[in-house]
Amino acid sequence: MKNIEQDLKKAEELLTGWNREASHPETNRLDIVVTVDDLRPAVTALHDAKWGYLSAITGLDLGVEAGQMEALYHFCNGPAITTLRIRQPRGDVSRLPTIEDIIPPATFFEREMHEMLGFHFTGARSSDRLFISDDWPEGVYPMRADFKVEQAQAVEDRRADEMPEEGVIGGNTFVVPIGPQHPALKEPGHFEFTVDGEVVTAARMRLGYAHRGIEKAAESRNWIQNLYLFERVCGICSHVHTMAYAMGVEKLAQVEVPMRAQAIRQIVAGLERLHSHLLWLGVAAHEAGFDTLFMYSWRDRETVMNLLEQVTGNRVNYSANVLGGVKCDIGLEQARLIKEGLNFLETRIRHYLEVVTTDAMFLNRTRNVGTITYDEAERFGLLGPTARASGLVRDVRIEAPYGAYSQFPISAVTETNGDLEARCVVRLNELLVSCFAIRTLLDNLPDGPLTTRMPRKIPAGETISRVEAPRGELFYYIKSAGGETPARVHVRTPSLCNWVSVLEKAVGRQLADVPMLIAGMDPCFSCNDRLVTVAQPAGRRTWSWKELREYGIEYYK
Amino acid sequence: MNIDHDPLWVKVAKKVRTWARLNSLWAVHFNSGSCNGCDIEILATLTPRYDVERFGIKLEGSPRHADVLIVTGPVTRQARERLIRTYEQMPEPKFVISVGSCSISGGVFEGCYNVGGAVDEVIPVDVFIPGCPPRPEAIVDGIIQLITHLEKGNPPPSQSKQAAEKAPA
To answer: Could you say which of A220, A235, A299 has the minimum Cβ distance to residue B133?
Structure first.
């Protein structure tokens, strides 16, 4: 605890010149109000002193009557969080200076703020749409308090055709669009890679194909309904989403969750990590043309799915969490089954570790490909296993232990090479750690009730809840106005931070590496339908993703 | 005499075509805004435990080579046009399977500003597989239902439904 105080004190010292109003909403948080002009120097001060990293930017609309909007810049340093709060009048005059030149990943946060709330960022490089659809009218912002669905009548597409009419930009340069459907990402995304011959010279991306408007929907549903809504942000890491949400709400309600419930949450989270990483291993192997490994790892993944079904009753959206605890218990028989499953999985994981580090063909596609150094990882603001493969320990479970992790700590897994091979090794080693952690938890499962009573109305306040998802830090900002529904829930998923690295790392690489690069950064199977157009001097040629993958495999033969 | 008009030939050709089609349904998968839960379950049906390849089903990357379009998720504004385009690129005869509660009704995302609604409001759907997400067994069952329906020589359900609507009362 002393550490947190020291860190927060240091942050306060760093920000002395710009500090208009400081408060401590929670013991681990420092909230500082700064003016618009002071934002850049304040951010620079924190950044230069390496005080944590920018975790998210939350935009708040305080409503028409208040006539104000707020932008919250959250910096996380271990468990300590410093929030820079900026108040701006509502309307078109809400201008903020961009900080993307100081902190590159802020680009995505700023674009999200612009599209959702209508903040204008002066000096920002790009104003392309990232989340909302092409036919969305200008000047309508869905997260504003007075937004009505009728306002969002479709207008003509800003970009009539997804594919560039002429791929040829000039000379030997061509644009290769990939998507909108894409295999290695959670959301279907659209990428455009500009290539000169074989080498990628520029990369662009467009998201929003799976943008559903969950944050807005959350404001009109009650606290319990939202639990099931946030479970469906992502089907692969559904448990950690509800965990982050539930932990935040419990903090607001000042409810202590029983230790047994916390341990069970952790066990399910560990099993979820097992299924998620095994799924990823299969996908990565598939992209490298190693379908045997794909089939084997997915066969073994069914063992985890069985265990998850044993414990929670569901295979994918487990609904293991309820506000104030968990809904399912783990008995002796279940514990035995889980341990049996883990025994089998451990031998398999050790086998896969051997495969990914010794198979010559696989190594050809992974060793020294897409290498990210420690400094780059820090600069791009990478999270999760992608950061840990470069030696950067970004793991909420270790940095800011929550729930049962404070009693049952886990050991950090890192690699130093930062290439695709290191990312495979980190993820597999993490699974061994998870297996060990689950066993420890099962052996020392505390006795006690599974739930506590939760109030129907949550007291007013705001809180931040961070959980380590399989792909990195998951960030929830929850604000309550004291009612039956939340006033604002802001979700920042780990993938949003890791995309920067795909775009930066693709430049200068061969086109054949692109599938592996994307798969290696943040993989989540989304779909198998995509078209790739490769423009060639002789004319256009349409390639399916499969053909591109085969081309990649052929290239590396 | 043109062989195409020979009734016996037409009958035999139809039989051979149906036989071939039913043993090699190629599917293209489109995520129109799903949370990924259905998508991983669809993939699970292709992997060793559920193994739909034993029915000749293969996941194909290009819609131009596919017979079946498997759609997951509520149709988001941005995905809508792309869904229609993918459907139009498929050669006839084509079948659509809509997987998951939200592709059937919008599910938990009903009423969200960026969600257009069900898949069958955009393209005709032959088989609905409910569940959030449906189990792999349910997905296999849905595919088998389509196969058995076609095996009997019936037109695809979506077409028969349209035909029923168009028929004079």
So the answer is: A235
Sheet holding B127-129, edge to edge: B58-59, B26-31, B68-72, B95-99, B127-129
CA atoms within 13 A on the CB side of A338: 28
CB proximity A528 to B under 8 Å: yes
CA-to-CA separations, A9 to A39, A74, A80, A85, A381, in angstroms, rounded = 19, 16, 10, 17, 24
Q: Residue A260: which of A41, A447, A403, A88 has the closest Cα?
A: A447
A162/B82 touch (CB, cutoff 8 Å), yes or no:
yes
3-state secondary structure of A311: helix
d(CA A301, CA A274): 8
How far, in Å, CA of A507 to CA of A460, rounded? 47
Nearest chain B residue to A546, by CA? B61
Chain B partners of A276 at a C-beta cutoff of 8 Å? none
Which of the 8 DSSP states describes residue A523?
Answer: -
CB atoms within 10 A of CB A519: 26
Could you tell me the pLDDT band of residue A531, with boundaries at 50, 70 and 90? very low
Q: Which residues of B5-21 are buried (b: 16+ CB within 10 A; e: fewer)?
A: eeeeeeeeeeeeeeeeb
Contacts of A213 in chain B (CB under 8 A): 109, 112-115
Q: B-chain residues within 8 Å CB-CB of A212?
A: 33, 74, 76, 109, 112, 114-115
Note whether B34 contacts A210, CB cutoff 8 Å: yes
Report the pLDDT averaged over residues A456-463: 90
Among residues 170-199 of chain A, which lie with CB inside 8 Å of chain B? 180-181, 186, 188
- Helix boundaries (H) for B1-76: 7-22, 37-46
Mean pLDDT value of segment A73-89: 89
Tell me the pLDDT tens digit for each residue of B20-29: 888 888 888 8
pTM, two decimals, is 0.87
